[in-house]
Structures are given as C-alpha cells and as structure tokens.
Amino acid sequence: MAAVSPDIATDFLVEAGEILERLGEQLVQLEQAADDRGLLNAVFRGFHTIKGGAGFLGLTPMVELCHALEDAFDKARDGKILLDDEAFDYAQRCLDTLARQMGALGAGAALEPADPELLAAIRAWASGPASTRPSASAGPAGAAARSAEAARTGGDTEQTVRVDTRRLDAIVNLTGELVLARNRLKVLRDRLKDEDLHRAVTALDHATARLQVSVMRTRMQPVSRVFQRFPKMARDVARQLGKQVELRLEGTGTELDRNLVEALADPLVHLVRNAIDHGIEHPSARAAAGKPELGQVLLSARQEGDHVVIEIRDDGAGMDAERLRARAVEKGLLAPEAAARLGAEECYQLIFLPGFSTKQEITDISGRGVGMDVVQSKVRELSGQIQIHAEPGHGSRFTITVPLTLAILPTLLVRVEGTIYALPLSRVVEVLPMPDARPDYVDSQPVLDLRSTTLPLFWLRAWLRRPPHAGGGEVIVVLQSGELRFGLVVDQVRGREEVVIKALPRRLRGLPGYAGATLIGDGALAMILDVDGLRRSAGPAQRG
After folding, report:
1. Whether this model's pTM surpasses 0.70
2. 3-state class (DSSP) for residue 471
3. Per residue, what are the HEC states of 265-288?
4. Do 237 and 351 sit in the same domain of this protein?
C-alpha cells in the first residue's frame, strides 16, 4: 500500500464504494429472483472487481473476503450450489465488513480482518453440494427499482472524466460571482437607459444564464447514488424486526446537486427505518387487520420546476393524532392547554420535537427520542421543507421538498424601512395587498379571512422590533411552512431576483429566522430569511 500512488488509492475507494452500494441492491434483487442469471453474473463481477483492486493495493483482508464470496457465487453460477436465505445473510454480512474496511482505508487505519466464523461459513457453503441445500426463497425484505436489466449491465457506458470536487466548487463559486456582477449591471442598465448598454447587458444576461445552467449540471447526480443503499438496509432492518417488507424505488434517475444528494442520505435513512419500524406492522397484526402480510414501503423522487420532491410512503399503521398529542404531554414536551388546541396535521408535526418518541422500549433501531428532529433540522438547512400526511390504519407519507441546487437561490425581495430582505421563492404562495380594515383576532393572533381560510398574520417590522408602519400600503406575502400557511406583512415587495447564498455574518449565526446573506443587484447586503424559523420565533405580532 505504501508504494502505491495516493491518487490510485483514492480512485479505488471511489470505484469500490460505488460497486459496494450497487451490490447491496443487486443482492436484494437476486434474493427475490435467485434464478436470474444476469443478476448472478453482476454480483460475481462486483466481488471480482473489488478483489482485483484490493489485490493490487495489497489489502489482504479485503482480498481474502472477496475471494471467498467470488468462489461461492462462481459455483452458484455453475449450478454446483444453490442460493438460500442463509447464503444471502452471509453475503450481506460480508458487505458490512467490506464497508467497514473501506472506511478504515479512507481514514488511513488498519483494515479489520473478516470474522473467521463468517469466512468458514462461506467456505462451507461454497463446498456443499447443491442437493443438500434448499432452493432460494424470498426473504422478509423485498426487492427494490425492479430494474433487473440495469442491475445486470450496470447501466449504459458513458464517457466520463473524474474531476476533483474542489475544482467543481471553485467553478460554481466563480459562476456565482458572475451572477452577482450581472445583477449589478442590470440595475445600472435600467438606471442609465442607454441603448448600447442595454443590448450588451442583455447578451451578457443570456450567456450567464446558459453558463449557470451548464455549470449546475456538472454538479448534478442521480438520486440513485443515495437510493441504491436502501434495499440492503430495508432487508436488514426487516429481518431484525421479524417483519415482511417490500421496498420499491421510483424516479431513481432524478438529478440533484451533488452536495444535496450527500446531505439527504442521513435524513432518508431515518425516514426509511422509521417507516419499517414504526409504520409497518408485524405480519400477524397485518393479517388480523385484513392486510397482506408483506408490507409496502415506497421511496420515490421527482422534479417539480426548480425543486425535487422525495416521498417515503408506507401502507402501515399510520399515525394517531390523539396518541401523539397525549405522548407529547406525557413527556412534558407540550402543555395540556397548548396540546388541546392542535389540529390533526399539527399533531403529526410533534414527532419532530427533540426527545419525542412513541416507542415504549429502546431498541437498536429506535426508541431513544432522537432522529426525527435531526431530520427536520437537516432538511431546513438545505432550504427545504418536510410535510406529513397520515391516516390511522392505512399508512403515512413523508414528503421532502428541496431546491435543485443551493448555490444560487431564486428569491422574492421585500423591503422594511429601507432595508431589503430575501425570502426563498419556493416558500412564497402569493402576494396580496393589505386590507384597509383592521384584522380579526383569534387567541390574540391577528388573522385574515382569505377565501374562507384563516390566515395568521405576522408583521416583519414587529419581529425586527421596529416601529409600526405609518404610511399604509403594506403588502402581505403568503408563505408556506410545512402544512401551515401564514401571511408576512412587509412595507413593499421589490420583485424576484436570483441570489448567491453567502454565510451569515458571525454575529448573526445561530439566530432564529435567518438562513444566510447575499448581495443584491444594487450592491447592498440583504439577509435571507428562514421561513420556518421566522414562524417559530414570531409571537402574536400586532400593529401599534
């Protein structure tokens, strides 16, 4: 290993990591279709490829493990041994060991050897005659993206070049600076009203827009990079819980910014595990309720405009709003009076409170009261939102909406007392003029009757602790926060502008309601507001 170039070792880590994630999905598919020759060949090639790279780098523990698996699956290809549930358990345990070895290699630590008992079991399986083992059957966790053909071939061959992600990030940052310069020139064009300047800036505007799209595409990756790890995880969790679960993947070709793909991995792990643990019932309970014993979990992705929507849906027990309400009061997370005022949709949001759990016992999978609050925090960090739909006895659906990229954000610029603030355009529902009549009040909260819907109102001036607006002509920006909508009252709406997100000034980091900062077209600094944080930190805001 010491004599090998670091670049070669890094290339091996990247390639082997991709193969390892693909093997997890392929093994689950093969478990459901053990006679699929193409899948069997793909699994054999995967272990063979990792073994070859590990052998070149002198990684003996990894070579030893891959060789045992390669030998076993080669004999399965020749019909000398059969694939059964126990064999797939061995293979999945080997994947876990290989993943730990890869992690140690990336950290510069020594590789742990494979469990001797596991190696002995694999070799015994490989040496056993086919007639002594039962035929393969479906395990309790089903196959995912039943795209067996893609798994066999590994997808279409593409002409690609590996580029250091730091170079890509540098290009994206430079493109962001170019966007800021373009915005500044557009302001000057409108101010100077020079025809030659107008034509030059318009041409620059079109070229910058095309460059921006092209650069963003270089950072795009299909969500399959995250999704393909879940079939194995679902299988392992279902086996551990004694449940029967089929995980289906849809929309795996949907593309997202590389940084977002990586950042979504942990939240999705929590949600898929929770769908299996909290959502899907045990086979006996499902049978008693008239359901198939095999529970269904769907993980899907789709693009909607400049956003990607990811859904995790199950056909399990759903959620009981009354039980969630009682649990929050029992754990001291909510006062009884406050809990009594919550509607069903608001009760579902209680699962995001730190320390909230409906589990009566702690297991390796859940019950510690951590996880869902982390999911919500991470999604909000990505300028996204998460919504919950549930029906007792029929299942739950978690919907995550995130922008395609975080590098450049479409915003609505608003003004309060001469200062500009930016609201993520994805959260803006509509803009309304402020009615002349005074608003109604519900529980001391100003509200607007909007098309037979009660819309809570918050004054941005009051939140900023500035005096009330005296001149009239205020504007209401209707914003979406989870399942709820509220109206943010501002002095003026300036218009839409794409902005480059910058880190907050040090003195503002950690303050609720602020998501970042940016430079707008006239060169001024504008704060980007966090819609969810703004709603949580704003009390009943009355006009003076």
Report:
1. no
2. coil
3. HHHHHHHHHHHHHHHCCCHHHHHH
4. yes
Distance CA 105, CA 113 (A): 13
Is 156 domain-assigned? no
Q: Containing domain of residue 412, as a range?
A: 408-537
d(CA 368, CA 357): 7
The three-state secondary structure class of 492 is: strand
CB atoms under 10 Å from CB of 350, counted, come to 22
Quick one: tokens of 98?
Answer: 């290989």
For residue 71, give the nearest of 92, 43, 104, 103 by alpha carbon.
43
- The length of the chain in residues reads 544
Q: Rounded CA gap, 252 and 301, in Å?
A: 7
Asked if the structure places residue 46 within a domain, the reply is yes
| Structure-token pair, residue 18 | 């991709």
CA atoms of 522 and 187, how far apart (whole Å): 6
155 in a domain, yes or no? no
Q: Are residues 258 and 385 in the same domain?
A: yes
Contact 233, 191 (CB under 8 A): no
Of residues 399, 385, 225, the one with CA closest to residue 312: 399
Of the candidates 126, 127, 128, 96, the residue with the CA atom closest to the CA atom of residue 114: 96
Over residues 303-350, the pLDDT tens digits come to 987 789 999 999 999 998 888 989 889 888 888 888 888 888 888 888
The crossing angle, in degrees rounded to 10, of helices 6-32 and 37-57 is 160
Q: How does pLDDT run across 510-529, given as a tens digit for each residue?
A: 678 888 888 887 778 889 99
